[in-house]
């Protein structure tokens, strides 16, 4: 199918959306006329109101689709001075594939490359072209691999694939906005969901063919080895970026910190973990074809690439980042454009990691200290509270809650692990140790002169009454004051919590609430609004602000404060939550209650079973 036919198919499918909407409007009008002639006006109004509301949603979707502009994504615009070699390479490849070079190149933070065109008149008139190039690609790839990526993207231009960008974008906006606004129980919504599936099948099939066409340009200009290895590098690099964000960036980010060189840190990680990333690339999944994918699976694309006649393209194993005049400066400039730091403190990587790991260890210690406070009735618990349990021979009794199924003796021995966390925290709190950055593995605890500190053996001594004094002596010799290690956060918060469910219009102690189910507690939102709009209200609520902020605004009940749950009825739910301080909370689902997603009640029941052990 040529680009012209694909353009026609996309236009026809978008027109079809409007035709379906007009046909349904005509059907509703005809139904209204018939009902008005055979029933009362009140009955006619009640029957037609949901359909009219749904058609109003269709009108909003259409209006938004017509007015929406496919604006360029944010990124750092690279001019000739910032990337002379990159621009030269792009122009060379554009000439080779027989197309006009892009008008601008934007550096973006994604593990991806893409092209866009602000065409006019449904793609009949060419527009301004933008090439988006992910900085992680430049940091990780060889020049010949990057050339294959650039050739692929420019192949979309030569195949006139980008001319349809505006049409496809508006079609998806129109359908998405419409379905989002129509209740899933409305028959008009059923029709549009069916059409949406057909639209996506046609549009995605065209997209997959375009990707295979662009791959041929990639092989022709960069060679088979560069093209296939670049393709296999993408999922490995995507996994590395995800790992980097989760393990290095997010812990400090949630603690109110930010690294001053986000992309420079990723470059260090790539260098330190090169062997791991190479292994990921070699074991990249082949993938399974699906009609809902916009890209063919890697296995299909690699097979198609190897079937293209080989070319004389030479290898170039130089790092791709040399195509920028100053890759480090570009990374910092990009960070300033696309990362909202808010009130977070910007720190160099060594200090960022030291403080973020220390904050994480403190949170773990606080959880143990709060548990010790509940167990002993101690206000302001800390390491001395836990050590007193050891001396009194009650550690096993206390530690049972952390090791399900273990005997008291086994729990006491196993508590050496949590005890090491408490001692690490005490060493940092005393200013005797700090966490040292490592790009090749976890951060290491080091002493005043940077020497490795391992308190595991001391922790083993500290969990037994007969060796506790020896452990305390060793800690004192290291300059660690155990009395200074106390709880910082006296009550658990929803920081770093994930949303796992939601129930609307649930009675809590006789008063209606919306309840957000997090992985570490319940957010109780009193007097939420009338029933019948609960699902929509919950969806809007969780999409507006982070759940941690919602937990700060409304009553929050951490699971660690619930000692047991009596479920008197599962459907509709009726339960009594007993707290450690002796209070009880009554929870009752109403007939008009709604869920954020259909398994929310089951999720909450699973949480209750876990609390009960």
From TrEMBL:
Domain of life of the source: Bacteria
Keywords in alphabetical order: Cell membrane, Hydrolase, Membrane, Metal-binding, Metalloprotease, Protease, Transmembrane, Transmembrane helix, Zinc
InterPro entries noted in UniProt: HtpX_protease, Peptidase_M48
Record's keyword annotation contains Ion transport: no
Transmembrane segments: 7-35, 47-66
Cofactors, names only: Zn(2+)
Topology within the bilayer: Multi-pass membrane protein
Signal peptide: none
Keyword Zinc: yes
Predominant cellular place of this UniProt entry's protein: membrane
PANTHER family reported for this sequence: PROTEASE HTPX
The name this protein goes by in its record: M48 family metallopeptidase
């Amino acid at each position: 199918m040529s680009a012209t036919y694909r353009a026609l198919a996309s236009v026809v499918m978008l027109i079809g959306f409007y035709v379906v909407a007009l046909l349904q409007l005509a059907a509703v009008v005809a139904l209204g006329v018939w009902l008005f002639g055979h029933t009362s006006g009140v009955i006619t109004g009640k029957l037609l109101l949901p359909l009219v509301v749904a058609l109003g949603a269709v009108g909003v979707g259409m209006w938004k689709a017509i007015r929406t502009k496919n604006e360029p994504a944010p990124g750092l615009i690279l001019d000739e001075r910032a990337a002379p070699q990159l621009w030269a390479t792009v122009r060379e490849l554009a000439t080779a594939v027989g197309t006009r070079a892009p008008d601008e190149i934007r550096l973006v933070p994604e593990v991806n490359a893409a092209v866009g065109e602000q065409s006019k008149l449904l793609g009949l008139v060419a527009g301004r072209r933008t090439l988006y190039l992910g900085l992680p690609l430049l940091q990780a790839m060889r020049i010949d691999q990057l050339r294959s990526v650039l050739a692929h993207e420019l192949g979309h231009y030569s195949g006139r694939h980008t001319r349809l960008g505006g049409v496809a974008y508006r079609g998806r906006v129109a359908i998405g906005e419409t379905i989002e606004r129509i209740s899933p129980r409305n028959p008009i919504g059923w029709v549009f969901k069916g059409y949406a599936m057909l639209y996506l099948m046609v549009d995605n099939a065209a997209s997959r063919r375009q990707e295979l066409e662009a791959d041929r340009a990639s092989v022709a200009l960069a060679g088979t080895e560069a093209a296939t290895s670049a393709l296999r590098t993408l999922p490995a690099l995507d996994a590395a970026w995800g790992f980097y964000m989760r393990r290095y960036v997010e812990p400090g980010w949630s603690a109110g910190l930010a690294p001053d060189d986000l992309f420079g840190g990723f470059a260090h990680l790539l260098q330190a973990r090169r062997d791991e990333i190479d292994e990921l690339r070699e074991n990249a999944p082949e993938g399974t074809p699906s009609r809902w994918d916009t890209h063919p699976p890697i296995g299909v694309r690699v097979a198609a690439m190897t079937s293209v006649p080989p070319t004389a393209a030479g290898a170039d194993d130089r790092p791709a980042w040399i195509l920028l005049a100053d890759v480090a400066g570009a990374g910092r400039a990009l960070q300033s454009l696309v990362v909202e730091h808010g009130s977070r403190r910007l720190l160099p990587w060594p200090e960022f990691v030291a403080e973020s790991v220390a904050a994480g260890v403190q949170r773990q210690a606080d959880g143990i200290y709060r548990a010790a406070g509940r167990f002993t009735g101690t206000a302001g618990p800390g390491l001395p509270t836990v050590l007193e349990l050891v001396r009194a021979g009650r550690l096993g009794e206390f530690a049972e809650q952390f090791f399900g199924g273990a005997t008291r003796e086994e729990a006491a021995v196993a508590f050496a692990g949590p005890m090491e966390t408490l001692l690490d925290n005490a060493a940092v709190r005393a200013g005797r140790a700090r966490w040292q950055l490592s790009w090749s593995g976890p951060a290491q605890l080091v002493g005043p002169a940077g020497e490795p500190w391992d308190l595991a053996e001391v922790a083993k001594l500290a969990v037994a009454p007969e060796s506790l004094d020896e452990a305390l002596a060793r800690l004192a010799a290291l300059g660690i004051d155990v009395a200074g290690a106390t709880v910082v956060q006296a009550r658990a918060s929803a920081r770093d919590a994930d949303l796992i469910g939601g129930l609307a219009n649930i009675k809590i102690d006789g008063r209606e609430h919306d309840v957000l189910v997090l992985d570490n507690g319940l957010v109780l939102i009193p007097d939420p609004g009338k029933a019948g709009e609960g699902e929509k209200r919950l969806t809007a609520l969780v999409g507006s602000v982070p759940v941690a902020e919602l937990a700060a605004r409304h009553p929050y009940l951490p699971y660690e404060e619930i000692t047991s749950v009596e479920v008197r009825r599962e459907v509709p739910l009726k339960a009594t939550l007993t707290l450690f301080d002796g209070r009880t909370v009554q929870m009752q689902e109403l007939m008009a209650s709604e869920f954020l997603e259909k398994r929310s009640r089951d999720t909450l029941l699973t949480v209750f079973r876990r609390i009960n052990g």
